[in-house]
Amino acid sequence: MAAGAPPRFDTLAVHAGQAPDPATGAVMTPVYYTSTFAQDGPGEHRGFEYGRTRNPTRDALQGCLAALEGARHGLAFASGLAAADALLHLLSAGDHVLASDDVYGGTFRIFDKVFRRLGLEFSSVDMTDPANVARALRPTTRLVWIESPTNPLLKIVDLAAVAALARAAGARTVVDNTFATPFFQRPLALGIDLVTHSTTKYLNGHSDVIGGAVLTSDDELHDRLRFIQNAVGAVPSPMDAFLVLRGLKTLHLRMARHAENALAIARFLEGHPQVARVVYPGLPSHPQAALAARQMSGPGGMLAFSIRGGLPAATALLRAVRVFACAESLGGVESLIEHPAIMTHASLPAAARAALGIDDGLLRVSAGVEDVADLIADLERGLAAARGA
Ligand code: P1T
Question: Ligand 1: which residue has its CA nearest to atom 20?
Fold first, then answer.
C-alpha cells in the first residue's frame, strides 16, 4: 500500500496482508495447497519449510487480521476453540484463570472439562462491575478471560478498567472479540494484551468455515503462541484461510448492515406483548448502554429475547420461522435464531444457566443482512405460532 496517511479500517479489510502475487500479478492471494516447500539445500529455504509451521495463504490472513485489530502479530487456528486451547497452553498447572461468568458454552467446557483436569484453576465473576474482578483476582491469577459483549446475554465489560486491574495484579488479559469484531471494538487499544476470535463467525461471515485467531502486539507472547501453534498443530487449511481472507474484504459493509437490522429487530421485539425482555446493547434499556456507546463504535448484530410461555412457546417459534434458520453459530450473512439453554450453552450446568438468566424462553438472534422487513415478518409468523403453544 502507498506511503502517507496510514490506511483506514475499510481499506485494511480489503488489502492488509495481501499484495498482488509477485510471480503472476494475481490480485487474489493464491491458495497455496502444498504441505511442504522445496529447499535449495538442507536448511536453505525461503522462509517456508512445512505447511503446519507456515503457509503463505495463512500468512496473508494473519497479516490482515492483525491489521484490523491494530496488533503487531496474528495467528490463525483451525477453530475458535483451537485458539482458546493455544492461549490456555501459555499457562501451567496451579495457574488461575479468572473468566467472565457468561461465556460461550464451549469456552466454559474447555476450561471445566479439559484444562481443569490438567491443574489449571478457573473461577468466574460477573465482570459488568469491575469491583467483582478486583475481589476475585488471586496471587496465582495469570489470565483474565473476558467476553464483551458476552454470549448469549450481551453483557458489556469495561475493558480499560479490567485491563488496568489485571495489569496491577500481574495477570494478562484476553478479550474474545467474536461478537463485536474489530469493526466495532478494538480491545488492544484499551490496554488488553490479547484478542481472540472464532473467525467462523463475522470475520468469515458466510457460514462456510470453522476457524479461529489470536492477535497481540506483545512480541514475547506472540513467540510463545507461535511455538504452540506449530507444536500443537491446530492450523487452518489453506482453503479455509483463503475463505476467511475473502470474507474479511466485506467485513465493514456487512457489520454496518448487521447492526442496522439488529436494532430494527430489537425495537420491534421490545414493543411486542409476547416478549418479556429484549437484550441489545443498542437499546437504551440495556443496563450498560452508555458503556457500550463509549467503548464500541456500534452495538453489533447480536440480540437476545425472552418469549412469554417458556419452552413450548420458544419451540413453536423456532419451528415456524422460514427466513431465519434455527441453528447454532452466528455472524453469517443469513439470519439465525437459536435456543441457548438447549443448543449453544447446554454445557453450562442448569443452576449456572438459571443464575445467569438463560431461561427456557430465551432465544438468541444473529441478525443477517437480508431485508429487515422480511426478518420482522418472519418473527411475527413465529410469534403467532407461539401464541397457541
Ligand atoms: O466454534 P469455534 O470456531 O470453535 O468457536 C468457538 C467460539 C468462541 N468464542 C465465541 C464467543 C463463540 O461464540 C464461539 C462459538 N460459538 C457458537 C458456535 C455459538 O453459536 O455461539
Answer: 329
pLDDT tens, 155-208? 999 999 999 999 999 999 999 999 999 999 999 999 999 999 999 999 999 999
Q: Which of 103, 111, 200 to mutate to test the pocket of ligand 1 (most atoms within 8 A of CB)?
A: 200
In a domain, 5, yes or no: no
pTM of the model as a whole: 0.97
Domain boundary residue, one of 221, 248, 275: 248
- Please state at what angle helix 219-232 crosses helix 80-88, rounded to 10 degrees: 110
- 241/258 same-domain check: no
Amino acid at 190: L
Residue with cell 475481589: 135
Burial (CB < 10 A; 0-12, 13-18, 19+), residue 217, is middle
CA 95 vs CA 23, 143, 192: distances in Å: 48, 8, 19
Q: Active-site residue among 58, 201, 254, 364?
A: 201
